[in-house]
């Protein structure tokens, strides 16, 4: 009984002999298990490199109706397979293209818990975008003037 009251770090696991102590020891040895499914897919990394196995068209859940592009990908490091959402309209990746995946599920598509990143590896960005360019991997148009500080505006570049 005294052992149960002590903090867990003071219990010496080598001295536990009886059945109760055996089960206590098992519970102490339990490893931390993260329950997030995205964490398990990406193994703790913010992004992972993957290969497209096929591109699928899916329809969303009940209140919404559309045709969404989804890619079945195999993650390089782990070999795990998952579904990833393809953002933007047009030019989706083809089979065996290399893509970069990040976490971010599609709320109305079941089992889709990853999002592909445009403009990296073989997955091209969208070129007609002027707003939210970082999301779609679009380059900066030449018509957009970069911000210059007020005191340096008179200098020509």
TrEMBL record:
InterPro entries reported for this sequence: NA-bd_OB-fold, Ribosomal_uS12, Ribosomal_uS12_bac
Domain of life: Eukaryota
Keyword Hydrolase among UniProt keywords: no
Pfam families from the UniProt entry: Ribosom_S12_S23
GO molecular function: structural constituent of ribosome
GO cellular component: small ribosomal subunit
Residues of the signal peptide: none
Annotated keywords: Mitochondrion, Ribonucleoprotein, Ribosomal protein
Family annotation (Gene3D superfamilies): Nucleic acid-binding proteins (2.40.50.140)
One GO biological process term: translation
PANTHER family: 30S RIBOSOMAL PROTEIN S12 FAMILY MEMBER
Family the entry assigns: Belongs to the universal ribosomal protein uS12 family.
The name this protein goes by in its record: Ribosomal protein S12
Organism encoding this protein: Euplotes crassus
């Amino acid at each position: 009984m005294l052992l149960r009251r002590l903090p867990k770090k003071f219990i010496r696991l080598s001295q536990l002999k009886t059945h109760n102590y055996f089960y206590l020891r098992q519970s102490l040895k339990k490893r931390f298990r993260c329950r997030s499914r995205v964490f398990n897919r990406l193994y703790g990394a913010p992004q992972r490199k993957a290969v497209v196995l096929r591109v699928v068209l899916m329809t969303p859940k009940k209140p919404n109706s559309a045709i969404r592009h989804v890619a079945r990908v195999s993650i390089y490091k782990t070999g795990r397979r998952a579904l990833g959402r393809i953002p933007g309209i047009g030019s989706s990746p083809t089979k065996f293209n290399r893509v970069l995946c990040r976490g971010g599920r599609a709320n109305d598509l079941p089992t889709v818990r990853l999002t592909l990143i445009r403009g990296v590896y073989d997955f091209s960005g969208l070129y007609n975008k002027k707003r939210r360019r970082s999301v779609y991997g679009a380059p900066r148009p030449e018509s957009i003037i970069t911000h210059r500080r007020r005191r340096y505006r008179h200098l020509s570049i």
